Amino acid sequence: MKKFTLAIFVMVVLSSVVFAGGTAESGAAAVVANKDKPLVFFNRQPSDPVTGEIDMQVMNWNDKTYYVGFDAAGGGAVQGQLIVDYLASADPAKLDRNGDGVIGYVLCIGDVGHNDSKARTQGIRQALGTWNGSTDPGQAVEGSAVVGGKTMKVVELDSRAMTGTDGTTWNANAATDAMSNWVTRLGDQIDMVISNNDGMAMGCLQASNYPAGVPIFGYDANADAIEAIGQGKLTGTVSQNVDAQATATLQVLRNLLDGLTGNEVVTAGITKADQYGNKISAPVNYVAETKALLAENSGVNSSNWTQYTEGTRDAGIKQISGPSFKVILTIYNSGDNFLSSSYIPALQYYAPLLNIDLTIVQGDGQNESSCLDRFTNLNNFDAYAINMVRTNSGMDYLDRLSY
Ligand code: BGC
């Protein structure tokens, strides 16, 4: 009798432990401690906000930790080239509004502590010859560019981080205010406006005194920006291939939850068909030393914008038949233009196809706690995807997973 009672007790304890590790309907087979579950950082790479150095302590949290983003340095170069190409075929007499022989531009930086911002500032300044080795606001030297066959001086008239009054970065309203002030202060010295994202570029165009016809460049290929290119309001943008990134974020988690290991984790469904026959159509490259999967960028302007209109989802990703898993995913700022208008809709499209039951929690873009306070009930999830407010906050999330 005693033996029987003990056996029942052991069985009850064991079964409750099993269910603590995964949800009853999920595919998680056995007990998995949160610290051992798959974890993907995306869009905001764990890194030092000052030096940009990748935080490998965070990236090496467990062997199931990866970063998914896009080729930031390559993207900066694509943006720079897009501008250089535009200048090459522009009419100097029309572009140089005050006829002083100098092409003056203003620059919206975004978030000085964000590697994407840094890479774009560098790519633009290098392409225009205004690079002096720093990605900070105001750090530029006189450059030059070929405009319609004529070599002209290029000057960065001003550059700003674009932090909102509430402390949020990449702030479109701050860009509207800055643009309005620039026009008042600099007038027709401004021949070109460059922004490190579309949200701020669209913000600049909102300024009531925006000088009509002055070329303006953004980054992200958000739907409203693509439409603005079609309407001739925005001159160009860069696609960081949000579909490839959103799918790769989910696919890596899916691969790990399906038990894939080694190289298979970063290739199945990404560079080759996975067991369900899915494969991301666009190129995504793996950088082993930083455990990063990076989508490629492409320039968008009036010649090719129709290829980037809303609704062009990846036909290489179809409904799978594998078990369902639960994932909690944080977004640093519910007000971020790119994440809310491009990334989240893509995640919501692909997650059901990959049988991932996604819980998205969003922060305020200023306080890490706004995300961390919603990063809860962690035992209920099979895997985690994290977009931090600050790129050096990775440890705060890992602490939550360590017990
Ligand atoms: C995007 C920005 C966005 C930022 C958020 C960047 O890659 O280009 O538009 O604000 O990510 O982290």
Characteristic key phrases:
disordered N terminus, 35% helix, 13 helices, alpha/beta, binds beta-D-glucopyranose, five-stranded mixed β-sheet
Task: Please give a quick description of this structure.
With 403 residues, the protein is α/β, with parallel strands linked by helices.
Can you walk through the features of this model?
The structure is a single chain. The protein has 403 residues and is an alpha/beta fold. Helix content is 35%, strand content 19%. The chain has helices at residues 2-21, 56-59, 72-88, 92-95, 115-128, 172-186, 198-205, 223-230, 242-257, 264-267, 337-353, 368-372, 394-401, and strands spanning 39-42, 65-70, 102-108, 143-147, 150-160, 190-195, 216-217, 236-239, 284-287, 292-295, 298-301, 325-331, 356-362, 383-386. A 7-stranded mixed sheet has the order 9-10-2-1-14-12-13, covered by helices on one side. Strands 4-5-3-6-7 form a 5-stranded mixed sheet, sandwiched between helices. Strand 9 and strand 10 form a beta hairpin. Helix 6 crosses helix 7 (198-205) and helix 9 (242-257) crosses helix 11. The longest helix is centred in the N-terminal third of the chain and has 20 residues, at 2-21. The chain binds beta-D-glucopyranose. Residues 43-44, 114, 116, 170, 197, 199, 219-220, 336-339 line the site of beta-D-glucopyranose (BGC).
Shape: elongated
Mean of pLDDT: 93
Number of strands: 14
SS element count, helices: 13
Class per helix and strand makeup: alpha/beta
Instruction: Report the portion of residues in β strands.
Output: 15-25%
Topology pattern, helix = H, strand = E = HEHEHHEHEEHEHEHEHHEEEEHEHEH
Helix percent reads 25-40%
Termini separation (Å)?
37 Å
Spatial order of the strands forming the largest sheet: 9-10-2-1-14-12-13
Query: What can be said about the biggest beta sheet?
Result: 7 strands, mixed
Uncertain segments: 1-28
Gyration radius (Cα, Å) is 24 Å
Bound molecules: beta-D-glucopyranose
